[in-house]
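Table S2 (continued). Query chain:
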Amino acid sequence: MLKAGSASGKVLAQVDTDNRRILDGAELSAYTSGMGDAGDVTVTATDKIEVIGTDAEGNPSNINALVTARATGNGGNLTINTPSLLVTDKGELTVETRGNGTAGNLLINTQTLTVTNNATVSAATSSPSP
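Corresponding output:
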């Protein structure tokens, strides 16, 4: 798990590789849990990126940029650069704001995108209850 978190400032998570597999509930995440914007996540692979499966408790493998429920700020951007992207078996790519603010942008630069078997690719903003 690679998490870049912040209670008050923006953090960048960047991964450059040939291949990247996020498996068995692993997570690559940039988030904020206080005041301030979430960080940006950029993953660049020269061959392929795969986000596959869940852990034993059902938590999905995922790459995300988000704002937690009690936070105030905008979500970070998630950028994926690869010739081939596979998201499968409940894996997730998400930008999301659960607090006050807007979700970041989800940008996928790929030649082949495969999303199968209950996997999710999404951008969402939900405001907290008053």
